[in-house]
Design goal:
It is built from 7 helices and 9 strands, in the order E-E-H-E-E-H-E-H-E-H-E-H-E-H-H-E. Strands 1, 2, 3, 4, 5, 6, 7, 8 and 9 form a 9-stranded mixed sheet that branches.
Amino acid sequence: MIEGINVEPATEEFLLWRCLHGGPLSRAGIDRYPDEPVLPWDRYRARNAPILAGLIRTYGACAIAAREGGEVVGMLRFYPRAVCDMHGAGGLCLQQDPPSGPDDDFAGAEFPPLARIDDKTLVVHCLTAGRPGRRDDPYRRKGLGSQMARTLIRWAGERGWERIEAAAFEDLPIIYETTGSAGRAFWEKLGFSLAERFPHPDLQGEEEFVLTLDAQARAAGIPPARARDKLVMRLALR
């Protein structure tokens, strides 16, 4: 436990309809949209809030939240694979349009109850804590991500889910600083094992992010081609 921070499944009481990329969120601040990036915030709110409410009513939760006082300072968002595979789900990123995010009318979808799902797998969509990318982040490297993941593991096992999967990459600073994914070692410490690896389609060019990734990989003794892979980490719950 981290003193002063409560980690628990997020409920309808406070719908985390957008992400923590700009830092902690509160009831008073979640609808104060940041100037950058300029996004269609009102449309995303209208789309996302009913989707999340439906997921919570059907499954009990779709995120683990870390709270310090009135602020959410960490979040692990997850979805049933059966929901990810539904028409219109897209990549279920709440701050993007399709195909990375859900269709606007996905809010009207009917989610299958757990008892009717054959593949009882939860998929971790993203994991964020504190103020990503800022060196003055007071929540950095404090174990908050591990605590949220352990809470998910415990919650999922008690609910009857059979496995959890999470996307990951090799352990490099740029992954932690700029994405919503943790590294391979993070998940292995929690009991996950590597299930798949394949070249990430968005990491095959020569963009600045990819070149930085390659440079960090070489410095860490990791072949750059492997650093460009997407990893699927898996944990069996029963």
